[in-house]
Amino acid sequence: MRTSSRCMFCTLSVFVCLAVVFYSFHIELKHLKMRSQELPIATDTITALDNRTFIISLYYEPRLGQTVRVIAIVHISVKELYCIFHCSSDQNVFVRAQIHLHSDRFGFPYGTADLLCAEPSGCHYTYMSFSSSISINTQQSILFEVKNRPPPPISSNFTVCISTLFGNYNNVLQMIQSIEMYKILGASKVTIYKTNCSQDVDKVLRHYIDKGILEVVPWPIDRHLRTSKKWRYYKGLTAEIGYFGQTAALNDCLYRNMYKSKFVLLNDIDEIILPVKDWDWSSLMENLQNKHPDTSVFRFESHVFPIPVNNSGFDLWPHVPGVNILTYRLRLPNKRNNFNAPKMIVNPRDVFQTSVHFARTRKTKTNIREDTAILFHCKMRNKYTIKDLVPHDRLMRYNLSLVPNVDKVIQELYPQQ
After folding, report:
1. SS3 of 374, please?
2. Containing domain of residue 162, as a range?
């Protein structure tokens, strides 16, 4: 009987001890969870970790195994950075990031970078944070949500990525005409990165957002770094990053739409990838894919249309600020051996990194001949005269659709008195 009582007492003691341990552990987990929930979640497009590292966005990267790819802007001196995975078990796991600074920073001290973070085994997470040291107090961190996890289904055929609007951009008419042309050619979505623009352009942006065709991503790069309108650094320039961080915006747009869109177009708002043999992008890409089945990056040579031609038949919107692309019907001939600034249509799921004119892919890159399609680049350049140019009227094929579509938008936004 005494032995039985002793056993019962020991069992009860062990149970009490385990209960105390479990309760203490539960309280500690609760405190950890509360501390994790108290951490701020990043809501800005560009978030400064310090004055050398700026986080743009985080994307799940299944093509490299269980990895997270972080689009960032970093100073060339950054050599060490840690990804902190905030596991659902309330454990924080530090993983040293592989830092891949893009080669095309064009001499500026800051450039686009990919931070590759391998997922820790057994960690179920939604958020990550970052540290320059493995010993930092994570209570000071900012949380970032990992996107594309799991990858969403494709919902668009063509998405156009535009970067970046700056300098109080005010080319209202050309913006409307370009977006309407993108729609005619087959765009389901247009994504624009905006640093700043005029009130008139902002009205246009709001119109297309309401119509569901446009996504505007705030791009306040000038709040963080001294920016340049030049793409290349030269001695004496005080800017820290070129062309308002254009390549970082393009890479974010690529990954933002990687699993949403079958194809992504990377060009500026004053450019249109214009089929010559085909009517729209769907027929163009079907033919190109049949001809080049192993290609995932199609590059279209830029053709500059530098001066307008007087044509009263298309002078329909004199009260709207901006360039009327329908009056630009003369092309500057390209020189055979020159670099003619191509832009791209890509299969984003095969592309790992993009610049303005080139993309890194695991498949083939193909340059498309001008008799198949061109990059229509409507940009005023006064140094040319008509005798320097040749006629090119492919855009006129679309005027019966383009003119009423543009007119409808302008009537809504700029009703004449």
Report:
1. strand
2. 156-413
